[in-house]
Protein 1
Amino acid sequence: MPHMLDNEYRKILKGELLRRSRANQTYSLRAFARDMSIEPGQLSRVLSGSKNISLTTARTIAEKIFSTEREKTYFLCLVEYTLTKKQDQKQLVLRRLE
């Protein structure tokens, strides 16, 4: 059974895209992808849930979106949680999130 955190990093990305779109009506997914240093098609697949981002890409994105280390670490933990397959490692990530 999927955990509620499995798509949480996507919600953060969607929220940031929405925030930027509201601030600038011409801002698009393509512009967001450019600003995050990710290919537009890849970003689209990530936001739709058909693909995950790597931790390397997540680090790049976190540097561009978040201003505090705590926010960056939280985002990276959410991505790591989604990528981790083993239950015991998921538990370790959950502990770091707390």
Note: The mean pLDDT is 93.
Protein 2
Amino acid sequence: MVLRLRQLASTQVKAITPKNVKAASYSYTKIKVTWDKIEGVDGYKVYRATSKNGKYSLVRTTTSANTLSYINTGRTAGKTYYYKVRGYKKIGKTTYHTKYSAVTSAY
């Protein structure tokens, strides 16, 4: 499913929630985070924490709506990482964000 934001107002951008966000072990020291495309956004922001309810830090900002994954390198083997994603769209000089996705994790 592709969500469309091309002609939406800022309040509509804020109402969108990214879907199908998943994290999976990609290699011994990497985790791959993927999500569904939201058509019309300018990119996505990926956040990571070391506990589900912990403090999330921005780890990647994409500059394309076509970038639908992020590979987190340098992780500690045997540790669980938690991720959430949100899209962003610039309208004029202001950047509007979608809601955060549901939290996903990988070990």
Note: The helical segments are 10-15.
